[in-house]
């Protein structure tokens, strides 16, 4: 032991107690104990590191980091110091630096189980699966009787794409895992074992294993679904069909079961549509309340069969007043014959209802609301075909019929939006909102329409009706990770050229996805302990593609556009867009900009006091946003580099989007990176040669290259 690290017996016992206080989260007590050692041995590195860890957990981050760094400097060969330093970086989500610290710690104590366990969690988070296998193997060698370590190694092999080795690890320790007392956890482990067999492609083995474990599995539906699926893959059609019929009997509303039966019977081919229709109608007769089967019947019906069936469906829905009818039937519009039939029927309904009050001239009398919902459907039908004048007149007729139905005003607002009358659409949506002030959905929809026409303050006031009263509405929406609001408000600010506020909103979306990614960390331990392994693996694979979501794509594109605008403004050195100005106008604009900058500096000097966080009823402090206007984004010195951070993500998650490569082209062109700009153009060519942006950007590329190289 190095001389600096050696402590007398009394202080050594205190230090061991310090480690225990950290494990029990007694941070204040641990801090006092650390101080008692440092009074006598002020240069003791490990005690300094532990004190820094306690301070960090007591919300004194800067002081904590200072003590930990000094502790590492005083004892560079201490695994405790490096481990603590890694814990601080991990708490700050700085996973790369934390990994470096753990690597140093293991140099000086390669068998420390706590460091190895923490390192394994970090490697899983960073998707370093090959290294994870090595770490998990070391853990297992340290504690071969610990079942979670066997499970952890099996999962590591599966994540690395080696399910066969994962299965070997699992089966080699089956006797130990049988000792798990909780039946549900044991059941989950058995189903995970089965999923590995299936992932290996051993469907026969997986089916045999299912039969073997049937009595021990608690999730009976999952077992029956998996058995029917495996039987289908193995060509055991009769057994699979029997299994799926049992599932349909239990839940006839699951479309997947019916589709599986169609496939088993060979009725999913185009040439067998008539037979498929016959099978589906027979099934529907058994389960007449199943909308899933009814929709499939309509999908496979042709000619007069479709005419009769859709007539019945439409009349029943209009009679009951189902607002979502158009949304559920417009999928049939892709077939021109079915589209014509539906259009003819609904128009005839309107005519007959207005004349005789029935769907057909000789039919029974319908309730007055039947005409209302028929008009509602027809208005949506016209809007779908961009016949906006007809749509407006039809929805107005419906409003005249029943002026208190909220959906009618919402649809009128949507039609006005499609016409391009965004302000009128927002006003109309507000009328709908005022009809039902307790409806959160309509409230949110109205706010979105307000934001689309840059009426930001009105939108925030409307949203405040349904947010917490003890915090500002915007802050509450940020806390709730309300993505649509931040995106719409970001684009509203972008249209108003308030780039700082726009970037603030778009970076909030970035943080939301960072938080989603960071939140999985706790599951690395929890899921292997609770044996929810199938869900855990599914979660990790989902997290790998979480940024594919269209919300993230929209926010990233908005952020890049804002950064490009900032780059263009600062390209002349003054932060001004001087294109089209005379010399006199340029001088005047520069003078005005300098005065504005001086005024802003004075304002910032007055705002030197940091806002104080408000205490909540539970004693915690509500964090205060110290940069609500996004000043740090607005005054960035590297807008193009900042834009590239978003573009790199877009290139990963949306490589087939023309917008991705067009935005990349814009940045590369401004950076004079000609090869990368050309590559972006070639990517657009591969996606769509006829895209109108391609010709324009190609000409810009040629001119830029000619200007640079003459």
From TrEMBL:
In what ranges is there compositional bias, type Basic and acidic residues?
594-618
Chain segments annotated as coiled-coil in the UniProt record: 213-240
Provide one Gene Ontology cellular component: NatA complex
Among SMART domains, the record links this protein to: TPR (SM00028)
Q: Which InterPro entries match?
A: NatA_aux_su, TPR-like_helical_dom_sf, TPR_rpt
Taxonomically, the superkingdom here is Eukaryota
* Name of protein: Uncharacterized protein
């Amino acid at each position: 032991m190095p001389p600096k690290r050696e402590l007398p017996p009394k202080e050594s016992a205190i230090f061991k107690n310090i480690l225990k206080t950290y494990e029990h989260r007694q941070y204040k007590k641990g801090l006092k104990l650390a101080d008692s050692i440092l009074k006598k041995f002020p240069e003791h590195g490990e005690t300094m590191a532990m004190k820094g860890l306690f301070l960090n957990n007591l919300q004194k981050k800067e002081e904590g980091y200072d003590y930990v760094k000094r502790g590492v400097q005083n004892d560079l060969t201490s695994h405790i110091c490096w481990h603590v330093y890694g814990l601080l970086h991990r708490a700050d989500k700085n996973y790369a630096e934390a990994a470096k610290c753990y690597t140093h710690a293991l140099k000086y104590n390669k068998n420390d189980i706590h460091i190895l366990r923490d390192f394994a969690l970090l490697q899983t988070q960073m998707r370093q699966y090959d290294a994870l296998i090595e770490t998990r193997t070391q853990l297992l060698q340290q504690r071969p009787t610990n079942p979670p370590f066997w499970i952890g190694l099996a999962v590591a092999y599966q994540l690395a794409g080696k399910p066969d080795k994962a299965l070997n690890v699992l089966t080699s320790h089956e006797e130990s895992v049988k000792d798990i007392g909780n039946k549900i956890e044991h059941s989950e482990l058995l189903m995970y074992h089965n999923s590995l067999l299936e992932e290996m492609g051993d469907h026969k083995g997986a089916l045999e294993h299912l039969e073997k474990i049937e009595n021990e599995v608690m999730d009976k539906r999952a077992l029956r679904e998996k058995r029917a699926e495996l039987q289908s893959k193995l060509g055991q059609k009769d057994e699979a069909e029997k299994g799926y019929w049992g599932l349909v009997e239990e839940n006839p509303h699951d479309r997947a079961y019916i589709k599986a039966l169609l496939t088993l019977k060979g009725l999913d081919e185009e040439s067998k549509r008539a037979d498929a229709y016959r099978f589906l109608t027979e099934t529907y007769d058994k389960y007449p309340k199943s909308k899933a089967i009814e929709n499939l019947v309509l999908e496979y019906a042709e000619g007069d069969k479709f005419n009769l069936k859709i007539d019945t469906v439409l009349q029943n829905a209009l009679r009951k007043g189902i607002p979502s009818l158009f949304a559920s039937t417009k999928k049939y519009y892709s077939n021109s014959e079915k589209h014509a039939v539906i259009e003819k029927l609904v128009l005839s309904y309107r005519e007959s209802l207005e004349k005789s009050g029935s769907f057909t001239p000789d039919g029974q009398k319908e309730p007055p609301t039947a005409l209302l919902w028929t008009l509602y459907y027809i208005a949506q039908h016209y809007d779908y075909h961009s016949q906006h004048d007809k749509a407006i007149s039809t929805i107005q007729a419906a409003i005249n019929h029943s002026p208190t139905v909220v959906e009618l005003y919402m649809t009128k607002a949507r039609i006005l939006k499609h016409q391009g009358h965004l302000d009128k659409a927002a006003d109309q949506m507000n009328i709908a909102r005022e009809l039902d002030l307790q409806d959160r959905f309509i409230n949110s929809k109205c706010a979105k329409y307000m934001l689309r026409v840059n009426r930001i303050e009105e939108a925030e006031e409307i949203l405040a009706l349904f947010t917490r009263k003890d915090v500002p509405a915007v802050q509450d929406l940020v806390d709730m990770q309300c993505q649509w609001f931040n995106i719409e408000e970001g684009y509203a600010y972008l249209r108003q050229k308030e780039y700082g506020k726009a970037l603030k909103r778009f970076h909030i979306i970035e943080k939301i996805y960072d938080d989603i990614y960071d939140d999985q960390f706790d599951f690395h331990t929890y899921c292997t302990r609770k044996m929810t392994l199938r869900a855990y693996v599914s979660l990790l694979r989902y997290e790998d593609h979480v940024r594919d979501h269209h919300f993230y794509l929209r926010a990233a594109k908005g952020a890049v556009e804002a950064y490009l605008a900032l780059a263009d403004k600062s390209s002349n050195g003054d932060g001004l867009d001087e294109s089209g100005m005379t010399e006199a106008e340029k001088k005047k604009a520069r003078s005005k900009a300098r005065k504005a900058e001086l005024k802003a500096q004075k304002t910032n000097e007055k705002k030197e006091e940091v806002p104080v966080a408000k205490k909540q009823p539970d004693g915690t402090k509500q964090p205060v946003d110290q940069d609500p206007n996004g000043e740090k984004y607005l005054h960035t010195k590297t807008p193009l580099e900042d834009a590239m951070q978003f573009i790199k993500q877009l290139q990963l998650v949306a490589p087939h989007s023309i917008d991705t490569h067009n935005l990349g082209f814009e940045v590369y062109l401004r950076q004079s990176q000609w090869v990368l700009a050309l590559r972006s153009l070639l990517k657009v060519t591969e996606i769509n040669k006829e895209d109108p942006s391609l010709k324009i950007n190609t000409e810009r590329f040629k001119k830029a290259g000619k200007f640079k190289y003459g």
